[in-house]
Amino acid sequence: MVVKIRLARFGRRNSPFYNIVVAHARTARNSRPLEVIGTYDPIPKKDLYDDTATKLHKEIKLDMVRAKYWIGVGAQPTDTAWRLLSMVGILHPKYQPDQPPAHKPKFATPAPTESGEAVQ
Hints:
A five-stranded mixed sheet has the order 4-3-2-1-5. It is an alpha+beta fold. The protein is built from two helices and five strands.
């Protein structure tokens, strides 16, 4: 049976909190998982230990050993879980923000000839 690493939502309305869980692919989102390997709090908060910092951060707590184990035995992370695991350094990023999208222009302009006119 396929095993997924995904997020299970907890918390109140407009105040989400997620457990990073390992569960069978066909089970419901908030059903009992095989294992809870971490938590993710998407609401930005100030750093408790640095009073001068103005930058907010989102909190990710993860059991790195168990996450590597589940990836090693073939658990498939969802896109959101993949993004979180790549932020921690377990997986390589799926989408590279540096690279422009490789696409062809809709209407290609013909190259001009030596006389300066475009060939149709």
